[in-house]
Automatic annotation (TrEMBL):
Residues 227-416 form the Calcineurin-like phosphoesterase domain. InterPro entries: Calcineurin-like_PHP (IPR004843), FN3_dom (IPR003961), Metallo-depent_PP-like (IPR029052), PAPs-like (IPR039331), PAPs_N (IPR015914), Purple_acid_Pase-like_N (IPR008963). The keyword Transmembrane helix applies. Residues 67-169 form the Purple acid phosphatase N-terminal domain. This is Metallophosphoesterase family protein. It comes from Veillonella magna. The chain crosses the membrane at residues 12-33.
Amino acid sequence: MNGRKTWQRWAVYVLGMVVVVAALGGLALQTTWGQVLAAKAGKYTRVLAAYVPIGDGEIRFTRQLITADSSTSRTIMWEPVKPEASPVVEYRLKDGAVTKQTATKQTAAAKSQESDSEIKRVTATESVLTDDEVTRYLYTATITGLTPRTTYEYRVGYENKRGDWHPLRTASSGASRSVITAGDAANKTATTDDAANTSATTGDAKAAESEDFTALIFPDSQSADYRGWDALAKEAYKRNPTAAFFINMGDLVDNGEDASQWDAWFTAVEPMIEDIPFVGVMGNHETYNLQWQVREPKAYLSLFDFPAVPQREDKNRYYSFDYNDVHFVVLDTQLAERPEAEREQALAREEAWLRHDLAATKARWKVVLMHKDTLRYPNTKRPDTVPGITDMGYAFMPIFDAYHVDAVVSAHYHMYRRRGHIKDFRRDESGPLYIISGVAGDVRYATLWKSHPLDTFVSPYPAEANYIVLTKTDDRLTFEAFLANGTKFDEVQVNKQ
Ligand SMILES: [Fe+2]
């Protein structure tokens, strides 16, 4: 009996030790993993769990939005139909999975690639917009620390659910080294150490090509029936699948409070807005409520998270961003839609910001995007109106002149006109090129607008929808205007040596 008791005591002891060791091991593992998590604390953590796909209709309108520096960051927003826990954006190198599978030898380079190919994650923040008696749950995350000129992919998710992967391409770091041009080997004031920079300093033509990009510019899309806008946006993207981003020049919707119109607008720009970043310009129709009175453009200001400006009260109204070596400025021309007591101060703030922004940029090119035009046009409904300059023109054109803006694109009149170069309110080849972009929705005017002495080209299709393709090549900005059916009806270039 004693021998048996001894054996039992040993068995209990050994079992106890196993339990203790297992517990300590588990603790050690937890500690190790805890240290991994701690090391990755902040925005990025490793992703271990298995996920299930987000079901159809559970989220809407996943979108990429432009950030101030498109070479290293991107903002992602989306709208689940109900509030969700643990919302995240995940991203990885586009070819990361392939690299991992084919890396048979764990060389240092392969290990590095494998490490880079891991999925990273950014926690999203939630905001709620209730407008037009509709509540939207808006999730926003900005990815930072991306590598310039690199193709990633991203997906959104929450809890154990994940959406589809979408492409995400970063721009080059062009703005920070914009003084360098192909063949400009003598000018070696490179500020970054990427490969393109090295080759650019040697005048490598390929490096110059890397600064090239195209972007789509859509004029006012406000509509009574958004099917035409839907077809135009989809056709333009299909014809320009390598576009780096797209711009909508304001009056995105006819009524800024009407939730169904925002749904129609977002539906029209899918899948483009999932694939490439959107650049929004606010128009006067974004400020209209359901009674057609002006109001704070609540929906527009909430639906998009654009680059911040120091003037916090003006967030999302005006901003700027760089794409390769082009600096884009988006203006707010809705001063008349603000309460009268605020207008003067609001304009002063924006003018001060604009001067500072244009003075600070090192980008080689400067392009301004503004909804309301700088020129006043006579029209058949107001025969007493004479051609001239608008309040927005008087406010901003002298600043464009002073800071050598290359091109100014506007909208609002629903007509396409090219006005050539203007400086000091007169024809002057040393001033910016002015283009009024046309119409993309179904509010069209066949005979409304008369001519302006500064017009150099008037679209022969005043009642048809159009879009513009902006192509940036080494020493040239090219604006090409197309009808919805792909017919090109204008082309103009700005050259810089
Ligand atoms: Fe407008």
